[in-house]
Design brief:
heterodimer, A: mainly alpha, two-stranded antiparallel ribbon, globular, B: 6-stranded mixed sheet, 26% strand, binds adenosine-5'-triphosphate, binds magnesium ion
Amino acid sequence: MSNIHGSLGELHALDALAAGRTTVHRLHPLAKLCSALIFILAVVSFGRYDFLPLTPYLFYPFILMALAEIPYGILLKRVLVALPFCLFAGLSNVFFDRETAFTLGSVTISYGVLSLLTILLKMYLSVMAALLLVATTPFVELTAQLRRLRVPMQFVTVFEMTYRYAGVLLLETRSMGMAYALRSGGKRALEMRHMGSFVGGLLLRGFDRAERIHAAMRCRGYSLRTVPRAPRPLRGADVWALAAIVTASAVLRFVRLF
Amino acid sequence: MLEIKDLTVEYADGKRAVDGIRFTLGAGENAALIGANGAGKTTLLHALVGVLEAKTGVVAVDGVTLVKKSLCTIRKNVGLVFQNPDDQLFMPDIFEDVAFGPRNLGLAEDEVKTRVDAALETLGIAQLARRSPLKLSGGEKRLSAIAAVLAMEPQYLLFDEPTAFLDPRARRGLAEMLSVLPQGKLIATHQLDFAAQTCSRVLLLQDGKLVADGGIALLGDKRLLESAGL
Ligand SMILES: Nc1ncnc2c1ncn2[C@@H]1O[C@H](COP(=O)(O)OP(=O)(O)OP(=O)(O)O)[C@@H](O)[C@H]1O
Ligand SMILES: [Mg+2]
């Protein structure tokens, strides 16, 4: 069960990053949310073979990471999580779409490979944009902003709860696992015949904890209906940052460099 | 004044955990809520802030009756410190957690910060501000959970086993702090000496019923306490 501590650390690594104090962190959450959305929209709107025209968009994650002083490794690990899904989606193209797109020296690149690369790049760019948003904006501010934008409250709640309960569930797993191990007579792993009741118990405990945490939140004034106040009005810097990202995304979208 | 009239609370399985309780707690009054395990202390405290719905009876805080519509007002005026601090701390760090309530009250950010700092200071845990609640000791979590409630600046404080997880010194510190805080308090506890240190009044629960209500002299009544399972 020791890896649970690791997972907990993981879960809160982005939180720790979000507490930073750089220029990017200090931007208004609305500006960051909109730029990320527009960036992602621009990226996914490209055609399936548009690998080259997409490459200039790499400026966004790299510039932002440098400005926000975010170590590259942390985000990269998380992007890789999405990789298998995209590979799965893109690999079939490689087999079905064999027509040659162009040749690089002696290597022929088929349309299938080109589309796989495009899918991977799109995935990389959009996941990075989302991760960067989370890593530079404290979670509370992000959900507060979503609620100010009147995003349906069911959606925001699910988002908030998943985020909070992930940690709770991990902790419950740890304490149940510990209790199990201490009385299991030296067996290291969970026995198959106990698996059902362990997982069932874990779910029930998870619900129970979730309910009490939710009660504690309500006791301190948490309510879905109250729309949180904006931390501050938009400032010049927010507008400029937003304008710069929107303009760059649009220009790269419509003015083809390659 | 915190008024409780003929309050009855039942769980979904029909268990009547609080049964016809009636008492009032004056502003600034400190009362200990004692009773054996399962006597209904936690259930009563939860019903007072509307976490559990009463089957019958009335709860009123400074003249405001507890109904769905008044929940917000009641919870602003009555703060509950949960039995298990893990249930109460859910933000990435202690500062954020303590700030959670004041932010929900719609306070401006500098006012929030002032309140958080004051609450942490009062409990002597300013150094924990940027620590994650997942990595604190039981006692540190307890103090953080109390700070989280104090930052709401309620008129009444409800404590559910506040001494659990505290070492003797922290317990003494807590007793001192509680006697300094001006709010009216209802303190559920098994620790009779702690009750004697902090309260001037004792409410004794048994099987969901209020069986005694009086001064702390009650704590010396061995036979009464024993018959209530303590
Ligand atoms: N969710 C529940 N469903 C049904 N019965 C419950 C539930 N929670 C508590 N009870 C029962 O209600 C009674 C009162 O429980 P409560 O938790 O209020 O006791 P308590 O005085 O706080 O005890 P302790 O000192 O052990 O914390 C107990 O008999 C308990 O078994
Ligand atoms: Mg209890």
